[in-house]
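Appendix B, example 12.
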Amino acid sequence: MYPRILELYSGIGGMHCAWNELGLEGEIVAAVDINTVANEVYKHNFPTIMLLNRNIQTLTAKEIEKLKVNTILMSPPCQPFTRNGKYLDNNDPRTNSFIYIIELLSDLECIDYILMENVKGFECSTVHNLFVEKLKECKFAYQEFLLCPSSVGIPNSRLRYYCVARRSNKEWSFEQKNEIMSSLPNNYSEPFQLEEIIDKDASDVYLLSDKLLKRAKILDICYKDSRRSCCFTKAYSHYVEGTGSVLTNATPESLKECFERANSHEVGSEEFVKTVKELKLRFFTPTEVLALMAFPKYYNFPENITTKQCYRLLGNSVNVKVISELLRILFL
């Protein structure tokens, strides 16, 4: 039986895109998410899919079996396993729906394949232990990974935990390891230059404000020939520290010279900001972030979705290329 997929915590459809990019026979049967804005974006790009706007804890084993699915793709909430989420783990109510799905697996004999994504740190959690123990109990063979898009040719850092699992007796196409793997079995080219995805006509609305330029010294600045960028979070453009990189058309040499002149003034002063402004530092546009997260070119946001909403949704999404490569080893 070819894959019939239930996409849980479907968000804006990153896993759906990954499945489409793989080009295998099979289909996404249904998607489930409680975020109405994410669902609007999902429906805009995949209008024919059954999209359920509901709490995952309302799904029953009988209802899932009626869908005749054999595969679950999911990216449960990551906040319980992050610093900003205070590492509350299973004490965070946002884990309740995933724990519910873990417990439900015992009654889901129809499910033969699972792919799960979460933040780095999940692998150290109590919920992780519950998850892998349930996989063992239900006779799944599984492999865990900690992977970054840069390892598959994408110039972006987004280190995440992944687990692929299946009940099939078919041997894996790679040598399994008991520990978490930090790379995929295939060889990939080095990341491409950012110039390939940069919008040369990006509006000035993406230029950093004077308020943000006061903190220019803490920015992660990329150039058009850079082969790297930092992880984009849902707070991108709202905060500047640790939320993602910014772009400049300047060269590394001219940037260094500009900061030398700026540093002759008090950091954050009007003269400091005026000098740094010469660099025309700007945020990556949502379309550029989509490209760095390997979404296909046909994918886009509805016109009524604000830029802030786009960044928030992207910050909670997955890297399509990494997911696609994991699906490849799960099914091939």
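The radius of gyration is 21 Å. The beta strands are 4-8, 27-33, 50-53, 71-74, 113-119, 141-147, 160-166, 221-222, 246-247, 282-283.
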